[in-house]
Amino acid sequence: MEVVNKIDQENQAKIWKQIYGFAEPLVLKCAVQLEIAETLHSNVKPMSLSELASKLPVQPVNEDRLHRIMRYLVHMKLFNKDESTHKYSMAPPSKYLLRGWEKSMVDTILCITDKVFLAPLNHLSDGLAGNCDAFEKAWGKTIWDYMSENPEKNQLFNASMACDTRLVTSALVTEGKSIFSDGINTLVDVGGGTGTAVKAISNAFPDIKCTIYDLPHVIADSPEIPNVTKISGDMFKSVPNADAIFMKCILHDWNDEECIQILKRCKEALPKEGRVIIVDIVLDRDSTHPYAKIRLTYDLEMMLTTGGKERTEEEWKKLIDAAGFASYKITQLSAVQSVIEAYPY
């Protein structure tokens, strides 16, 4: 019998890790659904397994199964277990599993792990053979058509987008103050959706007159926001005039030709000293960056769902040049996304 040497074992372990890599996000989803973080947080003190089981929203709880789930979550370093007392407590990352604060990631977890959004991964290789997106292959229609016909999933998707927007906007208004304080009196948020981003910008910079611009059915369902105007329309046809055009995670949904068309409409709406403020991913050359793999995963997600892509700085430059802009500047944030300012003249 051949003995597996250490190198073989390590290589096999890498493959096994990838094979069962799907388990971690689904166990994470389970932790969110069981409100484990909220339960431990509200109790303040560490809890035994039986104490934790008695407080969960699902009752009665099979303690052996809960023990095995908690063992996995501890291995993921999301929660701690004191081996002397056998009591559980929150680890630092688990605070992002708490609902109701600006950096909660609960809505994103529930959306990304939903079967509708996981299914396209099973069609990843199909997309190499043609122009059909994996989402369309999985569900028979584009993501935009699917969302318009399935309000529950659309709500889940919008909640996830709002969650992502809160994370990046929190970094944007604190780390990028100079971006908004330099000669901007009016700003239009193109594809602003439910207004999460523009609300934060308006609150942080009350002297800027802000507008949300999106498709009619999106504007119809968006909430009223004090001091923010709502306009419906199609960004491929026109964009309202403003000192600054703001787009958060819009261009990554579209191919290069479509992005150039959108950027041209933006340029037409800007004064000479205006700018487009793009908040989107800039793919890393440095693969050791903490967000490098996450940004590559976002790129796959765009390929699977919308046919869009995340871009390197060189690719952003090509788009900006092709749309007729004179220059650009990139500002790195502590968020997954960066800020790309494009200047028309």
Return the string of H and E elements.
HHHEHHEEHHHHHHEHEHEEHEHHEE
Number of strands: 10
User: Count the helices. How many?
Assistant: 16
Overall, the morphology is globular
Strand content: 5-15%
The side-by-side strand order for the widest beta sheet comes to 6-5-4-7-8-10-9
Major beta sheet summary: 7 strands, mixed
Query: For the CA atoms, what is the radius of gyration?
Result: 23 Å
Q: Quick check: average pLDDT?
A: 92
Low-confidence stretches: none
In whole angstroms, the N-to-C terminal distance is 72 Å
* Percent helix range: 40-55%
Structural class: alpha/beta
Short description:
The chain has 345 residues and is of the alpha/beta class.
Structure, explained:
- Residues 123-326 form the O-methyltransferase C-terminal domain.
- The chain has helices at 6-19, 23-33, 36-43, 49-55, 63-75, 106-112, 115-118, 134-139, 143-149, 151-175, 177-180, 196-204, 216-221, 256-268, 292-305, 313-322, and strands spanning 47-48, 79-82, 87-90, 186-190, 209-214, 228-232, 244-248, 275-280, 327-332, 338-343.
- The chain is of the alpha/beta class.
- Strand 7, helix 14 and strand 8 form a beta-alpha-beta unit.
- The longest helix is centred in the middle third of the chain and has 25 residues, at 151-175.
